Protein backbone atom coordinates (compact mmCIF):
# COMPACT_ATOMS: atom_id res chain seq x y z
CA UNK A 1 0.00 0.00 0.00
CA UNK A 2 1.51 3.34 -1.08
CA UNK A 3 1.75 6.05 1.56
CA UNK A 4 1.06 9.72 0.89
CA UNK A 5 1.78 12.59 3.27
CA UNK A 6 -0.66 15.42 2.64
CA UNK A 7 0.42 18.80 4.04
CA UNK A 8 -2.21 21.53 4.04
CA UNK A 9 -2.96 24.63 6.07
CA UNK A 10 -6.71 24.25 5.44
CA UNK A 11 -8.66 21.06 6.09
CA UNK A 12 -11.99 19.76 7.39
CA UNK A 13 -13.96 21.08 9.22
CA UNK A 14 -12.94 24.49 7.91
CA UNK A 15 -15.18 26.23 5.43
CA UNK A 16 -13.93 27.53 2.09
CA UNK A 17 -12.80 25.97 -1.16
CA UNK A 18 -9.26 25.13 0.04
CA UNK A 19 -10.42 22.95 2.95
CA UNK A 20 -13.12 21.36 0.82
CA UNK A 21 -10.57 20.55 -1.91
CA UNK A 22 -8.21 18.87 0.56
CA UNK A 23 -11.00 16.93 2.25
CA UNK A 24 -12.19 15.52 -1.07
CA UNK A 25 -8.68 14.63 -2.22
CA UNK A 26 -7.99 12.90 1.10
CA UNK A 27 -11.19 10.86 1.08
CA UNK A 28 -10.93 9.86 -2.57
CA UNK A 29 -7.25 8.87 -2.37
CA UNK A 30 -8.16 6.64 0.58
CA UNK A 31 -10.98 5.11 -1.49
CA UNK A 32 -8.36 4.31 -4.17
CA UNK A 33 -6.33 2.27 -1.71
CA UNK A 34 -3.68 4.79 -0.63
CA UNK A 35 -2.68 5.23 2.99
CA UNK A 36 -2.82 9.00 3.50
CA UNK A 37 -1.48 10.90 6.50
CA UNK A 38 -2.59 14.53 6.90
CA UNK A 39 -0.53 17.25 8.53
CA UNK A 40 -2.63 20.37 9.05
CA UNK A 41 -3.39 23.08 11.61
CA UNK A 42 -6.24 23.36 14.07
CA UNK A 43 -9.21 24.93 12.26
CA UNK A 44 -9.03 28.73 12.30
CA UNK A 45 -10.63 30.01 9.07
CA UNK A 46 -12.32 32.48 9.29
CA UNK A 47 -11.67 32.30 13.05
CA UNK A 48 -11.10 29.67 15.71
CA UNK A 49 -14.32 30.40 17.59
CA UNK A 50 -16.39 29.27 14.61
CA UNK A 51 -15.43 25.65 15.26
CA UNK A 52 -16.70 25.61 18.81
CA UNK A 53 -20.04 24.99 17.12
CA UNK A 54 -20.36 21.17 16.88
CA UNK A 55 -22.43 21.43 13.68
CA UNK A 56 -19.22 22.01 11.71
CA UNK A 57 -17.85 18.66 12.90
CA UNK A 58 -20.43 16.75 10.89
CA UNK A 59 -18.30 13.86 9.64
CA UNK A 60 -17.83 11.28 12.40
CA UNK A 61 -15.40 9.23 10.33
CA UNK A 62 -13.05 12.19 9.96
CA UNK A 63 -13.56 13.28 13.58
CA UNK A 64 -12.15 9.94 14.77
CA UNK A 65 -9.52 9.54 12.03
CA UNK A 66 -6.10 8.80 13.59
CA UNK A 67 -4.31 9.74 10.34
CA UNK A 68 -5.04 13.48 10.76
CA UNK A 69 -2.49 15.46 12.78
CA UNK A 70 -3.52 19.01 13.74
CA UNK A 71 -0.91 21.57 14.79
CA UNK A 72 -2.04 24.35 17.18
CA UNK A 73 -1.03 27.91 16.20
CA UNK A 74 -0.96 30.70 18.79
CA UNK A 75 -0.50 33.72 16.50
CA UNK A 76 -3.51 35.46 14.97
CA UNK A 77 -3.83 35.13 11.23
CA UNK A 78 -7.06 36.90 10.36
CA UNK A 79 -6.43 40.51 11.22
CA UNK A 80 -5.92 43.66 9.20
CA UNK A 81 -2.17 43.59 9.79
CA UNK A 82 0.09 41.98 7.20
CA UNK A 83 2.73 41.70 9.94
CA UNK A 84 0.39 39.58 12.08
CA UNK A 85 -0.34 37.35 9.11
CA UNK A 86 3.34 36.85 8.36
CA UNK A 87 3.97 35.97 12.02
CA UNK A 88 1.13 33.46 11.83
CA UNK A 89 2.56 31.86 8.69
CA UNK A 90 6.08 31.71 10.12
CA UNK A 91 4.89 30.08 13.33
CA UNK A 92 2.85 27.59 11.30
CA UNK A 93 5.87 26.76 9.12
CA UNK A 94 8.22 26.17 12.05
CA UNK A 95 5.71 24.05 13.97
CA UNK A 96 4.96 21.95 10.88
CA UNK A 97 8.67 21.55 10.12
CA UNK A 98 9.27 20.38 13.68
CA UNK A 99 6.47 17.81 13.24
CA UNK A 100 8.09 16.61 10.00
CA UNK A 101 11.47 16.20 11.68
CA UNK A 102 9.90 14.15 14.50
CA UNK A 103 7.88 11.95 12.12
CA UNK A 104 9.45 8.49 11.79
CA UNK A 105 7.06 7.20 9.14
CA UNK A 106 8.22 6.58 5.59
CA UNK A 107 6.20 7.91 2.66
CA UNK A 108 6.18 7.32 -1.06
CA UNK A 109 4.87 10.78 -2.03
CA UNK A 110 4.58 14.20 -0.40
CA UNK A 111 1.50 16.13 -1.52
CA UNK A 112 1.57 19.77 -0.36
CA UNK A 113 -0.80 22.59 -1.20
CA UNK A 114 -0.10 26.33 -1.45
CA UNK A 115 -0.75 29.16 -0.67
CA UNK A 116 0.64 30.09 1.70
CA UNK A 117 4.09 29.52 0.27
CA UNK A 118 5.40 28.73 3.77
CA UNK A 119 3.46 25.45 3.76
CA UNK A 120 5.07 24.53 0.45
CA UNK A 121 8.47 24.93 2.13
CA UNK A 122 7.35 22.37 4.74
CA UNK A 123 6.64 20.00 1.86
CA UNK A 124 10.11 20.61 0.46
CA UNK A 125 11.66 19.73 3.83
CA UNK A 126 9.61 16.50 3.90
CA UNK A 127 10.83 15.68 0.38
CA UNK A 128 14.48 16.12 1.35
CA UNK A 129 14.15 14.33 4.71
CA UNK A 130 12.63 11.18 3.26
CA UNK A 131 14.07 11.47 -0.26
CA UNK A 132 10.50 11.42 -1.53
CA UNK A 133 8.79 12.65 -4.65
CA UNK A 134 6.97 15.97 -4.28
CA UNK A 135 3.61 16.91 -5.80
CA UNK A 136 2.96 20.64 -5.37
CA UNK A 137 -0.68 21.76 -5.49
CA UNK A 138 -1.08 25.44 -6.50
CA UNK A 139 -4.44 27.02 -5.64
CA UNK A 140 -3.35 30.63 -6.12
CA UNK A 141 -0.35 32.52 -7.48
CA UNK A 142 1.40 33.67 -4.33
CA UNK A 143 3.08 36.21 -3.96
CA UNK A 144 1.40 37.66 -7.11
CA UNK A 145 -1.90 37.77 -5.23
CA UNK A 146 -0.30 39.81 -2.42
CA UNK A 147 0.32 42.60 -4.90
CA UNK A 148 -3.12 42.13 -6.41
CA UNK A 149 -4.95 42.94 -3.17
CA UNK A 150 -2.66 45.90 -2.55
CA UNK A 151 -1.60 45.07 0.99
CA UNK A 152 2.08 44.30 0.51
CA UNK A 153 4.61 45.98 -1.78
CA UNK A 154 7.99 45.67 -0.04
CA UNK A 155 10.29 44.94 -3.02
CA UNK A 156 13.05 43.08 -1.16
CA UNK A 157 10.68 40.67 0.56
CA UNK A 158 8.57 40.22 -2.59
CA UNK A 159 11.70 39.38 -4.58
CA UNK A 160 12.65 36.83 -1.92
CA UNK A 161 9.18 35.27 -2.21
CA UNK A 162 9.50 35.13 -6.01
CA UNK A 163 12.85 33.36 -5.68
CA UNK A 164 11.31 30.81 -3.30
CA UNK A 165 8.36 30.34 -5.65
CA UNK A 166 10.61 29.56 -8.65
CA UNK A 167 12.73 27.23 -6.52
CA UNK A 168 9.66 25.28 -5.38
CA UNK A 169 8.34 24.94 -8.93
CA UNK A 170 11.65 23.50 -10.08
CA UNK A 171 12.00 21.06 -7.19
CA UNK A 172 8.45 19.65 -7.54
CA UNK A 173 8.02 16.44 -9.52
CA UNK A 174 4.50 17.48 -10.53
CA UNK A 175 2.72 20.82 -10.22
CA UNK A 176 -1.05 20.57 -9.87
CA UNK A 177 -3.05 23.71 -10.76
CA UNK A 178 -6.73 24.33 -10.04
CA UNK A 179 -7.09 27.00 -12.75
CA UNK A 180 -5.87 26.84 -16.33
CA UNK A 181 -5.20 30.54 -15.95
CA UNK A 182 -2.06 29.68 -13.91
CA UNK A 183 -0.51 27.67 -16.71
CA UNK A 184 1.30 30.37 -18.68
CA UNK A 185 2.65 32.09 -15.59
CA UNK A 186 4.15 28.88 -14.20
CA UNK A 187 5.48 27.85 -17.61
CA UNK A 188 7.53 31.05 -17.68
CA UNK A 189 9.04 30.11 -14.32
CA UNK A 190 9.81 26.52 -15.33
CA UNK A 191 11.05 26.81 -18.90
CA UNK A 192 11.70 23.37 -20.45
CA UNK A 193 10.21 21.52 -17.46
CA UNK A 194 6.69 22.86 -18.05
CA UNK A 195 5.37 19.39 -19.00
CA UNK A 196 5.06 18.60 -15.30
CA UNK A 197 2.09 21.02 -14.94
CA UNK A 198 -1.22 19.12 -14.50
CA UNK A 199 -4.73 20.56 -14.28
CA UNK A 200 -6.96 19.39 -11.42
CA UNK A 201 -9.80 21.88 -10.87
CA UNK A 202 -12.00 22.23 -7.83
CA UNK A 203 -15.15 20.23 -8.39
CA UNK A 204 -18.38 18.88 -6.95
CA UNK A 205 -18.98 15.49 -5.40
CA UNK A 206 -21.49 13.28 -7.14
CA UNK A 207 -23.86 13.28 -4.15
CA UNK A 208 -23.83 17.09 -4.09
CA UNK A 209 -25.19 17.18 -7.62
CA UNK A 210 -27.90 14.66 -6.83
CA UNK A 211 -29.08 16.68 -3.83
CA UNK A 212 -29.77 19.83 -5.86
CA UNK A 213 -33.26 20.68 -7.14
CA UNK A 214 -34.57 23.21 -9.62
CA UNK A 215 -36.88 24.86 -7.05
CA UNK A 216 -36.00 28.54 -6.60
CA UNK A 217 -37.30 31.46 -4.57
CA UNK A 218 -38.71 34.63 -6.16
CA UNK A 219 -36.48 37.68 -6.60
CA UNK A 220 -33.73 36.32 -4.39
CA UNK A 221 -30.04 37.03 -5.02
CA UNK A 222 -27.11 35.51 -3.13
CA UNK A 223 -23.46 36.22 -2.43
CA UNK A 224 -21.57 33.37 -0.74
CA UNK A 225 -17.93 33.30 0.27
CA UNK A 226 -15.02 35.48 1.24
CA UNK A 227 -15.46 39.24 1.68
CA UNK A 228 -11.82 40.23 1.53
CA UNK A 229 -9.63 42.70 -0.27
CA UNK A 230 -9.78 40.81 -3.56
CA UNK A 231 -13.58 40.75 -3.80
CA UNK A 232 -14.29 44.46 -4.39
CA UNK A 233 -16.65 44.99 -1.47
CA UNK A 234 -17.20 48.63 -2.48
CA UNK A 235 -18.87 47.35 -5.65
CA UNK A 236 -21.04 44.99 -3.60
CA UNK A 237 -22.14 47.91 -1.41
CA UNK A 238 -23.29 49.90 -4.44
CA UNK A 239 -25.09 46.87 -5.81
CA UNK A 240 -26.77 46.21 -2.45
CA UNK A 241 -28.16 49.77 -2.47
CA UNK A 242 -29.70 49.30 -5.92
CA UNK A 243 -31.20 45.93 -4.96
CA UNK A 244 -32.69 47.47 -1.81
CA UNK A 245 -34.21 50.37 -3.76
CA UNK A 246 -35.99 47.82 -5.94
CA UNK A 247 -37.10 45.51 -3.12
CA UNK A 248 -34.94 42.58 -4.24
CA UNK A 249 -33.71 40.27 -1.51
CA UNK A 250 -29.97 39.71 -1.06
CA UNK A 251 -28.60 36.90 1.09
CA UNK A 252 -24.95 37.19 2.14
CA UNK A 253 -23.15 34.15 3.57
CA UNK A 254 -19.88 35.91 4.10
CA UNK A 255 -16.69 36.00 6.10
CA UNK A 256 -13.37 37.78 5.76
CA UNK A 257 -11.64 41.01 6.74
CA UNK A 258 -14.27 43.29 5.13
CA UNK A 259 -17.42 41.48 6.24
CA UNK A 260 -18.02 43.76 9.24
CA UNK A 261 -17.54 46.84 7.07
CA UNK A 262 -20.20 45.55 4.64
CA UNK A 263 -22.57 44.72 7.52
CA UNK A 264 -22.14 48.16 9.11
CA UNK A 265 -22.77 49.81 5.74
CA UNK A 266 -26.06 47.92 5.40
CA UNK A 267 -27.12 48.89 8.93
CA UNK A 268 -26.23 52.56 8.50
CA UNK A 269 -28.16 52.78 5.23
CA UNK A 270 -31.17 50.82 6.43
CA UNK A 271 -30.84 48.06 3.83
CA UNK A 272 -33.50 45.75 5.23
CA UNK A 273 -33.49 43.58 2.13
CA UNK A 274 -30.08 42.11 3.05
CA UNK A 275 -29.89 38.98 5.19
CA UNK A 276 -26.43 38.39 6.64
CA UNK A 277 -25.95 34.74 7.57
CA UNK A 278 -23.08 33.36 9.63
CA UNK A 279 -20.69 30.91 8.00
CA UNK A 280 -22.21 27.44 7.94
CA UNK A 281 -21.38 23.93 6.83
CA UNK A 282 -20.91 23.22 3.14
CA UNK A 283 -24.09 21.16 3.05
CA UNK A 284 -26.17 24.02 4.46
CA UNK A 285 -24.44 26.59 2.27
CA UNK A 286 -25.18 24.67 -0.91
CA UNK A 287 -28.80 24.30 0.16
CA UNK A 288 -29.17 28.07 0.70
CA UNK A 289 -27.46 28.86 -2.62
CA UNK A 290 -29.77 26.41 -4.37
CA UNK A 291 -32.84 28.31 -3.17
CA UNK A 292 -31.70 31.52 -4.89
CA UNK A 293 -32.45 32.80 -8.40
CA UNK A 294 -29.16 34.57 -9.15
CA UNK A 295 -25.67 34.39 -7.61
CA UNK A 296 -23.03 37.14 -7.53
CA UNK A 297 -19.26 36.91 -7.99
CA UNK A 298 -16.87 39.88 -7.97
CA UNK A 299 -13.11 40.38 -8.14
CA UNK A 300 -11.13 43.57 -8.34
CA UNK A 301 -9.92 44.52 -11.80
CA UNK A 302 -6.30 43.44 -11.33
CA UNK A 303 -4.29 41.40 -13.82
CA UNK A 304 -3.39 38.72 -11.28
CA UNK A 305 -7.09 37.88 -10.82
CA UNK A 306 -7.43 37.12 -14.54
CA UNK A 307 -5.88 33.74 -13.77
CA UNK A 308 -8.18 32.53 -10.99
CA UNK A 309 -11.42 30.59 -10.91
CA UNK A 310 -13.14 31.40 -7.58
CA UNK A 311 -14.50 28.38 -5.76
CA UNK A 312 -17.86 30.10 -5.45
CA UNK A 313 -18.29 29.95 -9.25
CA UNK A 314 -18.13 26.15 -9.12
CA UNK A 315 -20.44 26.09 -6.08
CA UNK A 316 -23.00 28.27 -7.87
CA UNK A 317 -22.87 25.99 -10.91
CA UNK A 318 -23.19 22.93 -8.67
CA UNK A 319 -26.39 24.47 -7.30
CA UNK A 320 -27.56 25.28 -10.86
CA UNK A 321 -27.90 28.99 -10.07
CA UNK A 322 -27.21 31.53 -12.87
CA UNK A 323 -24.26 33.82 -12.20
CA UNK A 324 -23.92 37.57 -12.57
CA UNK A 325 -20.35 38.71 -12.19
CA UNK A 326 -17.71 41.38 -12.39
CA UNK A 327 -14.72 39.18 -13.23
CA UNK A 328 -12.22 38.92 -16.06
CA UNK A 329 -9.80 36.48 -17.61
CA UNK A 330 -10.32 32.76 -17.05
CA UNK A 331 -13.50 33.12 -14.93
CA UNK A 332 -15.15 35.43 -17.46
CA UNK A 333 -14.21 33.13 -20.32
CA UNK A 334 -15.67 30.04 -18.65
CA UNK A 335 -18.92 31.67 -17.57
CA UNK A 336 -19.56 33.14 -21.01
CA UNK A 337 -18.42 30.13 -23.03
CA UNK A 338 -20.57 27.68 -21.06
CA UNK A 339 -23.51 30.14 -20.96
CA UNK A 340 -24.00 29.81 -17.21
CA UNK A 341 -24.22 33.53 -16.42
CA UNK A 342 -23.74 37.13 -17.49
CA UNK A 343 -20.59 39.20 -17.03
CA UNK A 344 -20.52 42.98 -16.69
CA UNK A 345 -18.30 44.57 -19.31
CA UNK A 346 -17.63 47.77 -17.38
CA UNK A 347 -17.69 46.24 -13.89
CA UNK A 348 -20.17 48.80 -12.58
CA UNK A 349 -22.88 48.25 -10.00
CA UNK A 350 -25.44 49.67 -12.45
CA UNK A 351 -24.55 47.11 -15.11
CA UNK A 352 -24.57 44.24 -12.61
CA UNK A 353 -27.96 45.38 -11.39
CA UNK A 354 -29.42 45.50 -14.92
CA UNK A 355 -28.15 41.98 -15.63
CA UNK A 356 -29.69 40.70 -12.39
CA UNK A 357 -33.02 42.29 -13.31
CA UNK A 358 -32.83 40.75 -16.79
CA UNK A 359 -32.36 37.27 -15.34
CA UNK A 360 -35.02 37.69 -12.66
CA UNK A 361 -37.52 38.62 -15.38
CA UNK A 362 -36.49 35.79 -17.71
CA UNK A 363 -37.41 32.40 -16.26
CA UNK A 364 -36.50 30.72 -19.55
CA UNK A 365 -32.98 32.17 -19.49
CA UNK A 366 -32.48 31.10 -15.88
CA UNK A 367 -33.64 27.59 -16.70
CA UNK A 368 -31.29 27.39 -19.69
CA UNK A 369 -28.33 28.55 -17.59
CA UNK A 370 -29.24 26.05 -14.85
CA UNK A 371 -29.20 23.20 -17.37
CA UNK A 372 -25.91 24.41 -18.81
CA UNK A 373 -24.38 24.54 -15.33
CA UNK A 374 -25.47 21.01 -14.51
CA UNK A 375 -24.22 19.68 -17.85
CA UNK A 376 -20.80 21.31 -17.44
CA UNK A 377 -20.32 20.12 -13.87
CA UNK A 378 -21.34 16.54 -14.68
CA UNK A 379 -19.07 16.44 -17.72
CA UNK A 380 -16.02 18.27 -16.38
CA UNK A 381 -16.09 18.94 -12.63
CA UNK A 382 -16.91 15.77 -10.68
CA UNK A 383 -14.34 14.83 -8.04
CA UNK A 384 -14.93 11.09 -8.35
CA UNK A 385 -13.79 11.28 -12.00
CA UNK A 386 -11.12 13.96 -11.72
CA UNK A 387 -9.24 12.29 -8.86
CA UNK A 388 -7.84 9.92 -11.48
CA UNK A 389 -5.60 12.78 -12.65
CA UNK A 390 -3.86 12.88 -9.27
CA UNK A 391 -3.75 9.09 -9.07
CA UNK A 392 -1.88 9.03 -12.39
CA UNK A 393 0.64 11.57 -11.06
CA UNK A 394 1.23 9.52 -7.89
CA UNK A 395 1.69 6.32 -9.89
CA UNK A 396 4.12 7.97 -12.31
CA UNK A 397 6.35 9.46 -9.61
CA UNK A 398 6.35 6.27 -7.53
CA UNK A 399 7.13 4.12 -10.58
CA UNK A 400 9.96 6.51 -11.41
CA UNK A 401 11.24 6.33 -7.83
CA UNK A 402 11.23 2.53 -8.03
CA UNK A 403 13.28 2.57 -11.21
CA UNK A 404 15.83 4.91 -9.62
CA UNK A 405 16.51 2.52 -6.72
TrEMBL record:
CDD domains: GT4_WbuB-like. Residues 19-202 form the Glycosyltransferase subfamily 4-like N-terminal domain. InterPro entries: Glyco_trans_1, Glyco_trans_4-like_N, Glycosyltransferase_grp1. Residues 206-374 form the Glycosyl transferase family domain. It comes from the Bacteria. This is Glycosyltransferase family 4 protein. It comes from Siminovitchia sediminis.
Amino acid sequence: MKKVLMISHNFYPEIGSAANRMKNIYQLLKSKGYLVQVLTTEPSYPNKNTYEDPSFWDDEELNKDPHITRIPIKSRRYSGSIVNRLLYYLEMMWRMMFAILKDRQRYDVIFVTSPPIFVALVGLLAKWKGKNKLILDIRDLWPESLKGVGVFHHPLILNLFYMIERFLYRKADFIIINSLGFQEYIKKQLGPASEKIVYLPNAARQFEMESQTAEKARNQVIYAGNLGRAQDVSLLKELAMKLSENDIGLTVIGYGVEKNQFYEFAQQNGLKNISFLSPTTRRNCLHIIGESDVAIVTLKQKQVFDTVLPGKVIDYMTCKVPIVGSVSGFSKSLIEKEKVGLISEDGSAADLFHKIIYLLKSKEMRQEMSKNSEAYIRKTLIWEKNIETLVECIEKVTDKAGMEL
